[in-house]
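Pasting as-is:
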Amino acid sequence: MSDWQERITRETAPAIRAEHELRYRAVSPLIGSAAAWADLGCGNGLAALAALGVARPGHAVLVDLDAEAVSRACATLDLPDAARLSGDLAEPSFLEEVGKELLAVPGERVVTCFEVVEHLPSFLPLLGWATGLAREHGVTFVLSVPNDAFWSIENPYHLTAWGEGAFEELSRLLPDSRTLLRQVALTGSTMLDWEARPTSRELTVEAGGPTAVATHFIAAFGPRHPEIMCTARAVQADLLAQRRWERERESNLAIAERRMREQHEQLRANTREFDDWRAYIHRLERELGRRPSEGSQPSESHAAGDIGDESRGGAPPA
């Protein structure tokens, strides 16, 4: 089932999972060598697991709005001793709590914040907190936002929309020493022997140029920001899983549209019934020589045809 909140699950399309994994892979050397790592918006932990492999920081702080997601991420990443925090990253008091856990151990600290900013009503508290950690405590911070101009799809869980211009505005609020990257989608193919035996391929990928449209924008700042890798991630296309994922999205959309039509028809039926009763009450008031009571006026569609309609015989509407 499609998850508009964008939590990565094992049913997520392979290309989208690879896209999320790539962001963690770009930072994985920093996470693996850090004394402490905080993952803001950790979700289920699947993307981080695929990227980190066996590497783990000395101390982990997993953060998400959903407490159950944090627990799943701890289990997925095999981090039973990780600090688990659930709360709103737009709230300064909660950010302070996250900061205390991150700074609880000495040494290098890294914070990842992938696909979170667009879900916040305001990113300014988070950005102020992050730049303060980088400036005062030498924390390396890496964040990403989607290029909504590329997707051109309204997401009900996105509270802000991002494009190249909006990201440039955000970048002006970052420290002068920073790394800015574009994430670009790839497509390709390969050949296997007739038995389709598993094999690995070393690929040379040509990327960039005027046709390169970013799917996401990446910003990194703090002492180790130059070490963010410009890397690529390719996975075998699971066409059966992709088709199932697409059909489920289509099915969910069709079900939602059908329910909306049913609700619309029910609303129209209720409106017609209410109008019939208003017309009936209005007619009785006129026959009794009373002034129409407040709220009893029928709609224009019924006022002309229902008043004086002898076919009803004075009976209330059926």
